Uronate isomerase (Microvirga guangxiensis), 1401 residues
Amino acid sequence: MLIHPDRLFPAEPAARDVARRLYEGIKDLPIISPHGHTDPRWYAENEPFLDPATLFVIPDHYIFRMLYSQGVRLEDLGIPTKDGGAVEKDPRAIWRRFAAHYHLFRGTPTRTWLDHTFATLFGFTERLSADNADAYYNRIDEALRMPEFRPRALFERFRIEAIATTESPLDPLKHHQTIRQSGWGGRVVTAYRPDPVVDPDFDGFRENLERFGEITGCDTSTWSGYLEAHRKRRAFFREYGATSTDHGHPTARTADLSRADAEALFRRVSTGDAGPGDAELFRAQMLTEMAAMSVEDGMVMQIHPGSFRNHNQQIYSRFGRDMGADIPSQTDYVGALKPLLDRFGNERNLSVILFTLDETSYSRELAPLAGHYPILKLGPAWWFFDAPEGMRRFRELTTETAGFYNTVGFNDDTRAYLSIPARHDVARRVDCAYLANLVTTHRLDEDEAHELAYDLAYRLAKEAYKL
Amino acid sequence: MLIHPDRLFPAEPAARDVARRLYEGIKDLPIISPHGHTDPRWYAENEPFLDPATLFVIPDHYIFRMLYSQGVRLEDLGIPTKDGGAVEKDPRAIWRRFAAHYHLFRGTPTRTWLDHTFATLFGFTERLSADNADAYYNRIDEALRMPEFRPRALFERFRIEAIATTESPLDPLKHHQTIRQSGWGGRVVTAYRPDPVVDPDFDGFRENLERFGEITGCDTSTWSGYLEAHRKRRAFFREYGATSTDHGHPTARTADLSRADAEALFRRVSTGDAGPGDAELFRAQMLTEMAAMSVEDGMVMQIHPGSFRNHNQQIYSRFGRDMGADIPSQTDYVGALKPLLDRFGNERNLSVILFTLDETSYSRELAPLAGHYPILKLGPAWWFFDAPEGMRRFRELTTETAGFYNTVGFNDDTRAYLSIPARHDVARRVDCAYLANLVTTHRLDEDEAHELAYDLAYRLAKEAYKL
Amino acid sequence: MLIHPDRLFPAEPAARDVARRLYEGIKDLPIISPHGHTDPRWYAENEPFLDPATLFVIPDHYIFRMLYSQGVRLEDLGIPTKDGGAVEKDPRAIWRRFAAHYHLFRGTPTRTWLDHTFATLFGFTERLSADNADAYYNRIDEALRMPEFRPRALFERFRIEAIATTESPLDPLKHHQTIRQSGWGGRVVTAYRPDPVVDPDFDGFRENLERFGEITGCDTSTWSGYLEAHRKRRAFFREYGATSTDHGHPTARTADLSRADAEALFRRVSTGDAGPGDAELFRAQMLTEMAAMSVEDGMVMQIHPGSFRNHNQQIYSRFGRDMGADIPSQTDYVGALKPLLDRFGNERNLSVILFTLDETSYSRELAPLAGHYPILKLGPAWWFFDAPEGMRRFRELTTETAGFYNTVGFNDDTRAYLSIPARHDVARRVDCAYLANLVTTHRLDEDEAHELAYDLAYRLAKEAYKL
C-alpha cells in the first residue's frame, strides 16, 4: 500500500482515534488555494500535460535540487540551460534517473506528495524504484493522454473552489482573460506581485519601469506617475479576481519616508543613480506604499521575505532562476516592520499576512506581533517548512501566543499542479493530529477541535483572502 | 467538565501513569512565588475585588491584546485612555464582549488559566461563551462580595508560603509597611526593580534621580552619591523582605568601565548630555554595579532582557505602557554578559538568574553558560513561553546541557492574582509530564523523578531566591 | 538495573516495537569513529589507565564543568593549574566528590554515557552515589589493572573498525608511527587540524609558523612556501591514514582573495603587522585554500565553527584551555560560506562536512545548503547537542529539507575513550526511535527504515569519511 489511511496521525491510539474523527469531518472539503504559482495557461488552454518527466521532474526544483545535491547533473535531468547547450531530451531517460534516486526523498514531504499523487491519480500500489520505473512511466504517460487528466478536469476532480496564480504587473493577464471568456466555471484569480517594478535589483528593473508606464499610460518617470501606475494596475488585476498582493523581498524591512525623500529616492533608483542601501530602502518604502493602497482598495498584502535568491553563482549563470539554490537567511520583523506598523498597524481595512523562512521568528516575533496588531496575520509554514514537522513546529511555536485565529489556514504555494490535493491533505492531517493532541491532553474540547479543523482547512483561508 | 484531572499529562498510558504518580506527590505543596507583579495594596487593604470585568479583563494584557488583535477596540473593553477619553464603563458589557470572543483563546495558556480559575474558585462546569456570559458574570460578581474572596483569604486558600511583589526604588513601600503592621501572617516581600533610576530612557529619568536623592538623603548628582543611594535603598527594601533585584533592560549588555569613565558617563546621562549609545552603556554598567552590590549584600539578581517595549506607537500614545504591545527581540548573552562575568563570574556569594524572550538562546547560550559559571542560573520559561509547549521547550533545550539544578523552579510573574494557583499547577503538571517521559524512556529512575518533581515545584525556587 | 534494554525508544508500544526491530538489526555493527580526540599514545603504548578519577573525572570537561557550575572548586577535582599550584592529589577523594554530586547529571547525556559504561564494562547494577562511591572506586580500580582493560583490548571489545584522532600539523605523529610499527591490527588514523598554523589568534602562531617551516623544509615566511608546507604536511598525514582535515574557527567565514591580496594578508599576519579583521580574514581565506588542496588530494574537510573559546577569563588564566568554558555563539553560514561555494560549490571531488553549535541554522541554512550543493554534507548533532533531544532536533530540523543522505552518520568527537560504545549506542537508539516514529506514522516503510538504520549507524560515516 503506497499511502496509509492513518498516515501522519499520532501513533498513540487514543489520539489517533480523535485525529481520525476530526479528519473524517473535513477531508472532503473543497480546496481554497489562495496563493500559488500554477501556470494560468493550463486552465486557459486545457492542453494535455506532455509526459511524466516534463510534468514531474523538469519543473520541480524540490526534486532536482535533491538529486543535484547527490551528484546528478542538472543537464542529465533535462533542465534547460540559458545558452541552449545540450541537455537530456529523452523523458524516459530522465524519469529513470529520477526513479533510481527515489530513496533520496525518504523522510521528505516531496516523497509524501509524490506517493499520494501516484496512488490517488494513477492507482500505483508499489513504491517507485529503478525496477518499476518503466511501468510507472508507461502508465502515467498513457493517463496523461486521457481527457480526465487535462487541467480543467483535474481542477474539478481536485475540488478546487478557488485558486490564485501570481503575476507581475507587466503580465497582460491574457490567460486569465481566456479563462473568463471560455465560459468554464473554474474560479482562477490572479494576484499582484510587483517585485519586477518595485525591486531595483530585479533583472531589467529600469526597462520594466518603462514598460510599466506604457502598459498603464502613466508617466513612470515621476514618483506620482509611478504610484498612479500601481493604482491602475492593481485595479486591472482586481478585474481578474485578484484579492491580494505579494511581495518577495530579501528582508521584511519597511520605511515611511517623507514625500520629498521618497521622490528623491525614486529618482535615484529609476535613473540608475542609486547609492548603497538605496535599493533596500526603496523596497522598504514600497511595502508601505503598497499598504497605503491596500487601505484604499482592500487588497490583502502578503509578505514573503528572507530568501537569499540564486545563492549558487555558477548554477545561476548556466541555468537561471529557481534552480533550488534559494537559501533562507536570518530575518528580523520587530524592527523591520515598525515604520509600516507605526503608520497603518491599527487600521481596520488592512490585512497583512506574514510568512517566514526563519523559524526562530515564530515564537519570538511573529506570534507576539500577530497576537497584538489588528492588521497582522500569520501565513502557514512556508516552503522548506511546508512539511509535517515544519507544520507541527509552526503550530507549537505560534498557537500559545497568537492563537489559531490570527493564522490564515493553508496555502500550497506550488507550481506542481498535481501535488495540490496531496499538499492540502498533508496540512489537514497535520492540523488534525495537532488538535488531537490538544484534545487528548485535555487542553481543548473535542467539539472545539471539530470547529477548528474546519476553520483551518477551509474557512480561515477563504476569509483571510476574501475568496 | 471544565478541567480534566489528567490535563497536560502525556497521552500514552504508561507515561501518563508515571505523571499521575509524580503529580500526586507534589500537587498540594505550598506555592513559592518569588517573582511577580501583584499589587501589595490588595494584601495591605484586603478590600474586595470590584467586579468580574475589573478583576479579569481590564488589567490583563494577555486577554485584551488577543481581542484587540481580532478587531475589538480597547475602549470597548474599558481600558482607560491617558487623556481620560470616553471608554466603556459597564462591566457587564465588557464581560459579554470578552465571553463572546472566548474561542480566540483556544490553544493558549490564558484559556487554561481561566478555566482552572472558573472551575476551582467559582465552581463552573461549562465553558464560557456568549450564551452563559451573564450566568458567569452573576455568579462571580456575587462571590467577590463574600469574605472568602478577599485577597488575604485567597492568599491562604492558594497555600502561598511566600510571594514577592516588584517595586521601584522610588516606591515608599507603604503597603508593605501596612502589611507588616497589620499582624497578618501572610509572607509578602518586595523586590528591588531600579529601572526608573537606572535606565536613562525611562520616562522622567532625571526627575527620578532627583527624587531618588531626596528619598535616600544622598547626593544623586554625583556618581558616588548615586551608588550610595542604591546601597541605602537596597537595605531599606531588605527591611521589607526583599531578597532579590530585578532588571528589565532592552538587552543583556553589561559593562565594566573604569571609575573615571563611569563617572563621566553618569554625568552625561544625568545632565541630559548623553550621546548615542550612552543610555545603553549606562544600563550595561549599572548591571555590573548591581552585581557588585549583590556580592556585598547577598541579594539575588534577576535579568529580564529583550523586550521591545511599547512597540505600537499609537496605542502607547493613547493608552500608555503594558498594553500588550511589548514584542521580544533577538538577545545576545555570550558577548553581552562577558564584562560582568569577567569580574564576578566565579564569585561564591552571587547569584544571577537569567531569563529570555529569545528561545534560540536556551540551548546555544544560556544552558552552556549556566552549566559552567557558578553565579548563573536559568529562570523558567518567561512571559509568552510560560505555557505548556513553551515550558516543554525550555526543559528539552536546557536540561541536557545545564541539568535541572542550574534552574530555579517556577515563578508566575503575574499581576493576575486569581491565576496564581492555575499557573503553578500548569508548571507542576508540565514538569511531571517531562519527567514521566524521561522515566518511560528509561533516562531517569522513578525515585529520582519524585525527588526532582519536589525540587522543581518547591525547593529550587525557595533556595534560589533565599525565601 | 542501571541500563534498560528499551532505553531511548518511544514509549508508545507500536513505535517501541518497530524501534526494537530496527535496533536489533544494527546494534552489533562495528564502530566507525571518523572524528574524535582520543590520545594516540593509548593505542601506541597500550599502558593501563591509572585510576577511576584520572580516567573519568580529571580529563572530562563535561563532568567537571557541571560540578563547577554548582560550586565545586576545580582544584578539589584535581584539575591541574598552569602554575602548578596545589590541587587535590588523592584520586579516591576526587571520586567521592564526583559521586556525591552524581544527581547533578540527571537528564544529561553524561549520565547516560556513564551508566552505560559502569554497567557494561564494570558490571554495576546500582546507581552511583555517595553511599557506594568506594565500592565503585574499588571495583573500577581493580579492573583497570587487568589486561582486558588496556586500550587495545578495549578497542577490540568495542568493535572499533576504524578511529580517527586529531593532530596539529606540528605533531610528529610518533604515536601513529609506533602503532604502525607495532604490528597491532587496530585501525587508528590521524586527521589534519591546522588551527595552530592557520589561526593568527592561536597561542604562539608566529613560532608555530617557524616550526612548520622547519618540519616541512618549506619557506613559511612566504605565502607560496607556506601553502607548500601545508601540501607536504597533508601528504605526510595521509601516510598515517588521514582522510580528513578539521577546522575549528570562531566563525564559518570564508574568503577568496586575489593572489596578491592573499600574499599581502599573509605577510601582515605572519610578521605581527595584522590590523583589525586580518586574523578573521586570514582564517577565512585559509578555509578556501584548504578546499583547493582537498580538490587536489581528496581529503574530506570538516568545519566546526561557532565556539567562543575560553569564555571565562579567570579560569583560562588559572587552568588553561578546554575547561568547560567554551560557549556557542550565533553562526551564519549562508553569507559566510559563499566565497568558498562560489569557487568550489559544484566540484565533484570535494566533500565539506558542516557542523554547528547554533541549532537555528539547521533548518534555516544548513539543510537548504546541503540539500542543494553537491560538496556539502551535514555532520551529526555536535557537542552540547550530542544527546537524545539534540539528536532528535537534528533529524526533525534537517530531514524534511536535506533528506538522510546529505548527512554523514554519527561521530563521537570524544576524548573519553570508555564512553565511545555508549555514545554510538545512544546515536543508534535515537535514530531507530526517529525512524520508528516515521514508520508508525506511515511516512516511511519498515523495509526502508531497516536500510536507513544501517546507513545511519555504519555506511554513511564510512563512505563520507572514505574509511
